[in-house]
Task: inverse folding
């Protein structure tokens, strides 16, 4: 348990260091807004899918297929619960703001921190 906590803490520190370096580079003019946008697109459309595809690079195991089904069912259940809770709990009167709040409540941005943490703790099985 302590090992997992240490690993998560180290990965979060690494992510914040990377964020800090990017922020400083941006403020110093080292990276233009266009460069930042292009790097973000590269990470989203190339790096993240490569990490996911790499996690599937293994011999077929039927137990993994079952675990994947359980993970998919859990994800669908979590999204359905978030949809229900967002409709009940978000009471913003302005329609445009309400739908943005509901969307942000339903869909997380777990890929940014989630994938590196899963990879660090669980390896390719977690991803």
Result:
């Amino acid at each position: 348990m302590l090992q997992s906590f240490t690993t998560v803490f180290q990965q979060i520190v690494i992510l914040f260091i990377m964020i800090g370096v990017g922020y400083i580079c941006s403020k110093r003019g080292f990276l233009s807004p266009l460069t930042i946008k292009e790097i973000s697109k590269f990470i989203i459309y190339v790096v993240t899918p490569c990490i996911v595809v790499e996690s599937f690079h293994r011999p077929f195991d039927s137990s993994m297929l079952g675990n994947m089904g359980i993970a998919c069912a859990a994800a669908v259940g979590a999204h359905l619960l978030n949809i229900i809770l967002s409709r009940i709990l978000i009471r913003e009167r302005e329609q445009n703001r309400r739908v943005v709040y509901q969307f942000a409540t339903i869909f997380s941005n777990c890929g940014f921190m989630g994938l590196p943490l899963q990879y660090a703790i669980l390896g390719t099985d977690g991803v």
About this structure: The radius of gyration is 18 Å. Residues 52 and 104 are 23 Å apart (CA to CA).
